[in-house]
Amino acid sequence: MDADVIVVGGGLAGLVAAAEVADAGKKVILLDQEPEQSLGGQAFWSFGGLMLVDSPEQRRLGIKDSRDLAWQDWQGSAAFDREEDHWPRKWAEAYVDFASGEKRAWLHAQGVRWFPVPGWAERGGYTATGHGNSVPRFHITWGTGPALVEPFVRRLREAEKKGLVRFCFRHRVTKLTASGGMEDGVEGEILEPSNVERAAKSSRKVVGDFKLKAQAIIVTSGGIGGNHDLVRKNWPANMGRAPAQMLSGVPDHVDGLMQGVVERAGGRLINADRMWHYPEGIDNYAPIWSRHGIRILSGPTPLWLDARGKRFPVPLFPGFDGLGALEHITKHGDDHSWFLLNKRVIGKEFALSGQEQNPDLTGKSIRGVLKRGRGTLTPVQKFINAGKDFVTADTLPELVSKMNSLTQKNLVSLETVTREVTARDRDLDNKYGKDLQIAAIRSARGYIGDRLIRTVKPHKLLDPAAGPLIAVRLWVLTRKTLGGLETDLSSRVLKDGKTPLGNVFAAGEVAGFGGGGVHGYRALEGTFLGGCIFSGRIAGREAAKLVK
Ligand SMILES: Cc1cc2nc3c(=O)[nH]c(=O)nc-3n(C[C@H](O)[C@H](O)[C@H](O)COP(=O)(O)OP(=O)(O)OC[C@H]3O[C@@H](n4cnc5c(N)ncnc54)[C@H](O)[C@@H]3O)c2cc1C
């Protein structure tokens, strides 16, 4: 045996799993195809948003949340309806218990802290039993993604000094192997050393091979979002066609190939057609990985228009139902849509996802975060200046003309846009009215966090004092894989819904964040990092228990 446990993939799920194995006093090898500087995978780049339920941060702002409300929301979003949802549903319930129970205290004890104003992601807009968060629950880690990765890397580096952990970078697993009929080893290729910057595409030149044996294998290799061929292959049947052009919200290493490796060994992949991509992507003017796109996190005010300038139907307002908006775009055969807003709105309502786009939160700068909600954030301004997807104008005719020049397709109708914007603005003449987006903006401002830093006072988009007008072309951005390897509540990979595949475990995105799809069809957000932590912790602890 080369170790007690082998972990395949050094993203958050792998780090957590390996740290738990080492904490149990067992020897673990952590393999990753990428070079050492990319340790931490996607989580390092993340915004660090975590779903916590009934937290002190929520209570301080008067948010009444509970395990029951969170479970109601989860079920409304997941809409589990398949036979394969047996384990995902069990995982979902266990995860909601974790998010409303031990999660915050466990992370807090390891030094993790949160920005005091929880965000209100995926607001739904349907009935109380439908999709979405009834209350704000998106807790941004103070220090964003890097600060969430740090405690687990620290634990592993300490265990490495004790001889319990061995890191093998540039080791790409291509096969699970068995002895005595029991999968307990891995084989693969050693890739040439690489000094690319963190998360940049690294070479795939093979310089050797390897074979390793252990008593248990934990697969934590991430999703498929960086592999657009796989995304297209698995594109859900009810979502039209995948756009011809998409951006990538994840690094190239999120290649999904390890899913096939486990499938070939007999593990079952379920819910492969469930994915969580974003319709609000913009092209990154300073890309790190291939087709690098950034997601806009918008407050509720911008008008969302299709490629022709027609407003999206209710409740597809920014931040309400991401997948619903995506479906609206792809079902119409489009590859882009538009946000229409003005300078006042962008100043308060636009943020960007990702740690590098939030230097104030990532750098733990109190002075920096106090500027939030008081004018355009510097990273957003950089996109306005250098990005390809923003146009600005003083009048609607000028704006539409610029939108059409940008796409070179002349699709946007000035008549349609004028009608949409003036009708919407006219509905503001009373304190009440029929436009549900305006009603939603008024309701959002009932939450102090939104009123302070996220949602502008309702006003006419054409008010010259709030201008100039801005239009942003939005691309589809691939990100999360909701389906995955089917696992039981011990994180053991299953062959057929019942029988474990040898001593193989899976956690994190490759396992659909638990069970093979803990989110069902839709996510409440902030549930992916938490899903990696929860499933990685279980996989590590259960694998360690199995070791003789
Ligand atoms: C910009 C950005 C912002 C995000 N923001 C949030 C957020 O605010 N909240 C939230 O909940 N989620 C967020 N996410 C999602 C979350 O970060 C990911 O879902 C999560 O980190 C996935 O972790 P993982 O360990 O499962 O996989 P990964 O991080 O993808 O790690 C998998 C690792 O496995 C390695 N690997 C793959 N195949 C092999 C192989 N065959 N052999 C060896 N190694 C292999 C890869 O190189 C990689 O290092 C964000 C993601 C991004 C990119």
What this model shows, in words?
With 548 residues, the protein is α+β, with helices and mostly antiparallel strands. It is 32% helix and 20% strand. The chain contains 18 helices and 21 strands. It has helices spanning 12-23, 56-60, 67-78, 86-99, 102-109, 144-161, 228-233, 257-265, 322-331, 343-349, 359-362, 366-369, 378-386, 396-407, 414-426, 436-444, 448-453, 528-546, and strands at residues 5-8, 28-32, 49-51, 138-140, 165-169, 171-179, 182-191, 206-213, 216-219, 247-248, 269-270, 275-283, 293-298, 303-305, 336-342, 350-352, 390-393, 469-481, 484-485, 492-494, 500-506. Strands 10, 12, 13, 14, 15, 16, 17 and 18 form an 8-stranded mixed sheet that branches. Strands 5-2-1-9-21-20 form a 6-stranded mixed sheet. It has a 3-stranded antiparallel sheet with strand order 6-7-8. Strand 20 and strand 21 form a beta hairpin. The longest helix has 19 residues, at 528-546. The termini are close together. The model has no long low-confidence stretch (mean pLDDT 97). Flavin-adenine dinucleotide binds at residues 8-14, 31-34, 41-43, 45-49, 172-173, 220-222, 249-250, 253-254, 257-258, 353-354, 480, 508-509, 526-529, 532. Flavin-adenine dinucleotide (FAD) binds next to helix 1, strand 2, strand 6, helix 8 and helix 18.
